[in-house]
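Lab channel / #folding
Pinned by the channel admin:
"Please post every new chain as: sequence first, then the structure tokens as a reply. Keep commentary short and put observations after the output so the thread stays searchable."

First post following the new format, from NK:
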Amino acid sequence: MEGVIFKLIKLLLLVLYLHNGNISIHAARHQNLIYYSLPEKRPLKKALGFIEDTYLNFTELTNKYGYPTEQHDVITDDGYILAVFRILPKCDGQKRGFPIILMHGIYDSSDEWILTGPETGLGYILANNCYDVWAANHRGNVYSRRHVTLNPNKDADFWDYTFDEHGYYDVPAIVDYVLRITQQPKVNYIGHSQGTTDFFVMGSLRPEYNNKIQMSFHLSPVAWMKNIASPLPRLVAPASKSIRRLLDDLGFRELFAKHQFIHSLLEFLCQFAPDDICGEAYTAATGYKRGNISSRNLAVSFGHLFAGISSKDLDHFGQLVATGRFQRYDYGMKENIKRYGSPIPPEYDVSKITSAVVLISAQNDGVSSLKDVEILASKLPNLIENYLVPDPSWSHNDQVFGKKAPKIVFAKIVELLNKYNS
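Reply from TO:
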């Protein structure tokens, strides 16, 4: 089965390569990097009746709904320029507690915290509760596709990263920046999916940052992945190294980006068949139950989903699935010895995460299985609560987009924030 999957992916990539070759074949040969950009065509989307929130960016959305917002650029120690959007508290009282950093999932951006609208978006709800909200973007996505020296369209080295770099460089840089701007001693942190992985990496590799965290919340936490239920990752994971090598050889180091065809296709299809196409896509990928997310939010979410990742990042997750270990990137024996002093990559030591942690899990989550969450929970020394959402159908993306998220997820977060930030 692994060989069949790899052959199918290889065929698809070759077709894409030939299709894009007339656009940037010169770049592919000499830079070993494929880049192309599709026009956004907002007037056409408007004429076709797209929901407006589908194509508005972060600041356009917050301005539309009357929330004061700032954009800040954070530069990491290795030169990546990260966009972080600040939603100022919108309430009658004074600013409450410590500022909150939000970190999105693997295919998402900061938009995931607000795209469902002011009544149900967690970013808005926190601002309504007097919190100073900082919606971050990791390197390489649509808002953080920048570097002080590297060009993401031409320099392959720009895409040489995984969630290891997110945790070692990106999150610490954002934490330090927010503390400096707000003049606060600590921050709170809320992550979803890969946004939780980033935090676990930081706490393991840079444990000194535990002193800067008041508490962290992890929606559908992803660390150990040995029990992942979603069938596609289980099928692809054993071939992830070969797939990544093929992607690199063809110049596809940037995947699932907003300017690429896959985003435009799904954005279009989900406007007209959100439940039948995009709901089913969520079902296949995460165990989603039809109806948990409104048709409107399904359509809007796929206008913001696929914000850009690196092929190496996807390979790293494949390694976690294949090995059943929460480990650093596997470069092969020789390079591992050079980098880590060991022939196999070391595991992330989450026992070093001494700051307060809250895990929020879903029973029907095809990515973050309850068995894997239990492994993680057993190793955390300061686990405040391992909260299981009281809905047996609840899944991975319901955590941020679900109809009942404000009542059964966000209310829990606000309750604990208020308790521990008073």
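NK: The mean pLDDT is 92.
TO: also worth noting, The chain has one domain: 2-21+31-420.
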